[in-house]
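Collaboration report, partner site 2.

Our partner group contributed sequences for two proteins of shared interest, and the home lab folded both. The records are reproduced in the order in which they were received, starting with the first partner submission.
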Amino acid sequence: MTTNQEDPNEDGSTSRRDFVKKTAAALAATSLTAYGQQKPQVKIWPEEHWRERMKAPDDGKRYGWLVDTRRCFGCHGCEVACKAENDVPLGNYIRQTIYHDFERNDSQMARVMTPMACQHCEDAPCLKACPCGALHKGAGGSVQVDYNVCSGHAACKEACPYGAIYIDPVANQAIKCHNCTHRLDVGLEPACTTTCPSEALYFGDLNDPTSKISKMQKRIAEEEDADLAILREEKQTKPRMQFVVDSKHPMSAWESKIPKEGESYANDAYSVFEWGEKTEEDSK
């Protein structure tokens, strides 16, 4: 019996040898990360693959976030609450606070601290890139992961422009903020917002003018020393998270600190060497 020929099964289907060959070829087409792990190629699937999953339930709600960077003092309470609520392992984060030191116009040093998490985009690229159909829109338009379907392909992580997804090292599945849906279902707010001592985090229904987040949006719009901004507007993902920023220190000053496609929140963000603005000399 020769070993260099494909041997079809009795029913004419492709043999295991042929399957292994095709699988090896597919893996060879992917690039390798610095750690030797296979890095999936980002592919946006045809609309028929994700159209229905992109539609939010007809519940009349539109959940969103507002982060007041002027009030956050970097206590990490939101991160700790999130880790405890969702059993997030050490070294991984569903949300993370980004630090940035800068010099003010009066030559005094200042620091802005920004709690970051999934933006729950209306036009979510992670959902479009998911090959197995695990990502979908849940209550209020929240971007959710179906763990009965997720295969850990990591295409969603590669497609996310905000570094808000990580792959669980044990379950090998995509993990991200899900707006604490299990808490919303019983009338509670996300764990992070109820823990924040400085009232820097607001979550709620943007369609409800009486919600705390809607009232805060209106209040900020009337203030002259603050602006409402969204992260990486050029990505055109229509994120549901807005940031209150000092008009004298725009988002562009610290936006580079936020992870990009293919990245996740990491321990390096807490290094003091990452807090200040980097110069060309620093990068040499």
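Second partner submission, folded after the first:
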Amino acid sequence: MPDNEYSAGRKEDKPELEEIQEFEEDDFKKELNEENIIVFGENLVKDYEIGDFIVRAVDNVSLKIKVGEFIAIMGPSGAGKTTLLNLLGGLDSPNKGRIYNQGVKISDMNQESLTTFRLMNSGFIFQNYNLISSLTAEENIMFPLMLSGMKFDKQRERAIKLLEDVRLGDRREHLPFQLSAGEQQRVAIARAVANDPPIILADEPTANLDKKTSQFIRDIFKLLKEDKKTIIIATHDDELIALADKIISFDEGKIISEERISN
């Protein structure tokens, strides 16, 4: 009998505990909103198993990013910069810690939910472009628009405009292999902004490009900054770094320093 009473008591306590946790969560989200924080990460840890070894790519990282900030992450190859970008944008989940993206706790989401969330909320620009090889430049840009439910004629209209914006209006029917590296990256940028996401994440976007193309892409990022997009970029490009509001030095999975820049 006492066991039954104890069990019953525990069952009654559980909803009350959930209500307290929900209240605390709502209160925390309100605090983030009041501080204008769009991305919040706390005590983030990400480990990868490589054979018999465990590599810690992100090691107990905490950071706050405000709406409209341009954040440059600097560090040597293998420092964990790409992994950190993937966590903040919802491409991956941490082993430990919590991440809020626009007030939504994404660190506990399953992959299906993360895919849906980042479709409209995060635009990714990769060092190696990651275009779909069997789709034309136009179709690559239309792809995320299709996933978001936009009507076909609107998809095409949006894709054509974006291609014209990156000066590739005459390359719309070209497949990725028919485009230069710089042209592929410009298509990738157009795809990243297709759904007008508030956050843009970029991993060494000018690393493999010639000087002229790099300058053009820097100009695009300048326009994105003027458009009040929140930009988180891993880069060694001095001219991109010059656009930053804050520079984060990153090494061995940790933030070594943070420097706020007066532009």
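Feedback sent to the partner group on the second submission included the following. Residues 2-34 form the longest helix (33 residues). The chain has a mean pLDDT of 90.
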